[in-house]
Amino acid sequence: MTAAARLPHEPARGIREVESGYDVEEIRADFPILNQQVHGHKLVYLDNAATSQKPRAVTDAIVRYYERDNANVHRGVHYLSERATEEYEAGRTAAQKFIHAADRHEIIFVRSATEGINLVAQTYGRKHVGAGDEVLISAMEHHSNIVPWQMLCEEKGAKLQVAPINDRGELILEKFEQLLGPRTKIAAVGHVSNALGTINPVEQIVKLAHARNIPVLVDGAQAVPRIPVDVQALGCDFYVFSGHKTYGPTGIGILYGKFALLDAMPPYQGGGEMISSVSFEKTVYNKVPLKFEAGTPDMSGAVGMRAALEYLNHLGMENIAQYEHQLLEYATGKVSAIPGVRIIGTAKEKAGVLSFVIEGVHPHDVGTILDQEGIAIRTGHHCAQPVMERFKVDATARASFGLYNSKEEIDALVRGIQKVREVFA
Ligand code: 7TS
Fold this sequence. Notes:
- Helix content is 38%, strand content 16%.
- With 425 residues, it is an alpha/beta fold.
């Protein structure tokens, strides 16, 4: 029986149980892609912040959808169309429950976290941000949470304000608070930084902004796969994440927004699905969330997303967060003990992302040598160039952990880094 098929409280039969019932070997068996050799070595996949691998439960659900249920949604009275619509809408409910949104209509299917942020910038932003107004972000944002706001500010003659971070890679909350001014129309911050691993104190950030009636968008692309997320507890107004980083398929993402805000927002794209009636004189838009879902949506993506979220629920996000934290601590201890290695991002609250540089070695060379050992990491600026600038590096090497990584894989990473040092000695 796979981990996914097992209920969380049900012990695995005949399989070694580890602390809190989290058996990584059993979990790995759910991910066929992990079981392969790369350059003659066992694959060690440590690029989960870029995209995560998919359990068989996800790929099976997508195949099942196409073999059994596929039809266009929300438009046919025929049997298959109704079934496809049920499947698609079940994906919405699964996402609602997963991030604990109050209402399933607050969940909008988008292409990715990136599209979710662009949607808010282009609808809420264009409606509310004018000349001389301000948008506040942080200095640790991914380009996806910088550029859409920059584009908006450029169009409107508004100003992008950036709250600084300290040498550990933590947001300086007092500065953030000072930058929340009378012209600030929205604040947008990452929940977990992809380049540094920092977990931001979103609840506090939201409280500071709400005290001034400023709404907050949270980029949860790296948080939803790593830590439990409850949008009502966080209090944020918008929250985005991507399916493909959450062990689900590519091409689907979620935008959560508080209903009253979504309801008052103009549509993003025009087309089918997002209307209730069209004439050449006047078009009446559909209700939230369909108002924001123009055209045929990614039905199989919603099905795959639901399977991924159910898989995560079976393992338990608390267990995953705890397990990844153990991996991070183990890796941080081992990697930082290697002479010449500097860790970039040493926040007190961190998720499973380990960025580092090796003295005298370009990160791309680190990545290339590790690849020869079968180890996949990411090197470069991680679409967070301002973060690189802040730490005065061009790039870093980044190992990012997932729910299926093991201590043995971290040992392999450490051996790989030692090899890099030998090559460049
Ligand atoms: N926000 C954060 C914090 C991210 O890490 C990423 C992608 C995005 C937004 C955009 O997600 P997308 O699914 O819309 O592309 N981060 C990375 C990364 O770290 N390496 O590759 C993509």
